[in-house]
Amino acid sequence: MQAPLVVGLGRIGVAISGLAPNLPGVDGGSAELAALATSPAPGIAVALRAALRLGCRARACGSHGADLLGQLARSALRDAGIETDLLRAVGTSACDLVTVAGDGKLRAHYRGDRGEPVKLDVAAALAGASALLIDGSEPRDQLQAAEAAKRAQVPVIFDVSELREGAADLIAVCDILLASEREASELAPRGELTDALDELIGLGPRAVVITLGADGAIGRHGHSLVRTPAFATEDVLDAYGAGSVFHGAFAAALLSELPFHRCMELGAAAASLSLRELGPWSAMPSREDVLALTRQRRAG
């Protein structure tokens, strides 16, 4: 039996992460980096790799920069086993510069130039799809694809990594909404998380998950409220991109027809295991790693 196909649609950027003994001071001299990593930035690319590692097939659609960084990102996806035929090179790459140090973290973001709009072949993108992942990075194309996916009864999972114009329309058409606590508070500015979940459900999705970092995640599906504590992991180095890992692992669990609380549990387990190295790309856990961690919690 062929593995389910997860399709991710969005604008793929690049993350350059460095490990330093301390954050640079104002007008300070150059600091020695202990490690440096360049990989696709958190978002659709990372979510697709997480789904792939947990047993799905993966297809990336959309665009990346028409520059060296964009080519590096495309090559990384292709080398990981993700289909890239429907990715188009246009504009310049968005880039995150992340410094991880003993006294904190520093992140700078370059948005890049998106270039001329590229027409999306929605039928080709969704051919054989079992789920569609979107992140709001290409609102027009993602809305078009999400509407087509809904007509084809393909679940749409929207990870709100950043609120952009058109996000409300995407929320209304998605089946499952994933949001960080910060984004959820902007969408539903209420004091209690349970009230925020109710308000977000009212915007259209049939299920909502709010990720809470070290406090795990909370979600609502129908009348069911689910709280998933974070998994304790050793050697935590870098939490950047863990939400995208949760996104992809949740999708893989959903396509395995697991109940909602198990999808959240596997998403949380995968996210926790992605904290061990610089960026989630190189630390991406396998299906066996994730299942072993969940079994360990139950045994304990």
Task: Describe it.
With 300 residues, the chain is of the alpha/beta class. The chain has helices at 44-53, 68-80, 122-126, 139-151, 167-173, 181-187, 193-201, 242-255, 260-273, 279-282, 287-299; strands at 5-12, 14-20, 35-40, 57-64, 83-89, 95-101, 104-110, 131-134, 156-160, 176-180, 207-211, 217-221, 224-228. It has a single domain (5-22, 34-112, 122-299), classed as Ribokinase (UDP-N-acetylmuramoyl-L-alanine:D-glutamate ligase, 3-Layer(aba) Sandwich), CATH 3.40.1190. The strands form 2 sheets. A 9-stranded mixed β-sheet has the order 5-4-1-8-9-10-11-12-13, with helices on both faces. The chain has a 4-stranded mixed β-sheet with strand order 3-2-6-7. The longest helix has 14 residues, at 242-255.
Number of strands: 13
Kindly report the spatial arrangement of strands forming the biggest sheet.
5-4-1-8-9-10-11-12-13
Order of helices and strands: EEEHEHEEEHEHEHEHHEEEHHHH
Q: Percent range for helical residues?
A: 25-40%
Structural class assignment: alpha/beta
Per CATH, the architecture is 3-Layer(aba) Sandwich
The major sheet is characterized as: 9 strands, mixed
CATH superfamily: Ribokinase
- Report how far the terminal alpha carbons are from each other: 34 Å
CATH topology: UDP-N-acetylmuramoyl-L-alanine:D-glutamate ligase
Low-confidence stretches: none
Mean pLDDT across all residues, rounded?
A: 93
Proportion of beta-strand residues: 25-35%
Helical element count? Answer: 11
* Dominant shape: globular
Can you tell me the number of structural domains?
Answer: 1
